[in-house]
Amino acid sequence: MELFSWYNVLIILAVLLSIPKFFGSDDQNKKKHVVIFLILALTALVEWYGQYLRLSGQNNTIVYNIGYVLIGLSLKFYFFSQAFQDKKEKMLVLLLWTAFMVWSFSNFLFFQALGEFHHYSLAFGSFLLIALCFYFFFGIFFKNKYENQNLLAVPEFWIISFFMFFYACSFFYFISFSFFLDGMDLALVIQLNFLIRVLGCIMYLIMGLAFYAPLVFKSDPILISN
Question: This protein's superkingdom (predicted)?
């Protein structure tokens, strides 16, 4: 059985790429680095086990619902709580994560059984993460956060940028998932799924490499002279 798809191999590569820099991370970035490593490792495990169940003829949606939707998105919310420093910002993340959890359990109890893929919960969580991404960039452009740093040397800038890129592109795919099951051309569904996976691989590889940014780019702000 082909247990390791190209998608899973690239995610494992992202996990491996993230490991060496962990031992050289400063205290400021170490906790965020751990969260990213957990997200990558969890995603690789879910993809591997999901592939195993699929090839064995078993239902793998429970693995994706718990590992990818519930725990995976929760870890991304936790990453935002580490990226934000202000207490009000951390409370905002906690509030949005609570809303996501309440909706996820309500969705399970009243709308979608555990054996169905919880695309409603994934779409709602994606929407909340996009909102946090916009809030992050709002702080950069209007509150002058990181004004004394080169943004390209800030790991969370890269990670949150690709969070926004991936979830902005995939949000409508997730929210429209039920329509895919009602007569949409299968070839088109396969193409859309492949595109989402490619975008996901790019995001995970950036997450694995993001903490090398301070080594590649100067930490001083970029000054533009006339």
Answer: Bacteria
Residue 130 has pLDDT above 80, yes or no: yes
- How many Cβ atoms from other residues are within 10 Å of residue 30's Cβ? 14
Do residues 65 and 32 lie in contact, with contact meaning Cβ atoms separated by under 8 Å?
A: no
Residue 172 is predicted with a pLDDT of 80
CA–CA separation, 60 vs 79, rounded Å? 27
Distance from C-alpha of 204 to C-alpha of 36, rounded to nearest angstrom: 9
How many whole angstroms from its chain centre is CA 41? 12
Instruction: Return the structure tokens found at 31.
Output: 């906790």
Q: Is residue 63 part of a domain?
A: yes
Domain that holds residue 139: 6-214
* Alpha-helix runs per DSSP H in 143-182: 155-175, 177-180
The structure's pTM equals 0.90
Look at the chain and report how many structural domains it folds into. 1
Whether residue 224 lies inside any domain: the answer is no
Residue-level pLDDT at 121:
93
38-68 residue pLDDT tens: 999 999 999 999 989 988 989 999 999 999 9
With 70 as the cut, is the pLDDT of residue 159 above it?
Answer: yes
Query: Please, what's the b/e burial string for 142-181 (b: 16 or more CB within 10 A of its CB; e: otherwise)?
Result: eeebeeebbbebbbbbbbbbbbbebbbebbebbbebeebe
Measured in residues, the chain has a length of 226
Q: Which of 109, 125, 108, 126 is nearest to 117 (CA)?
A: 108
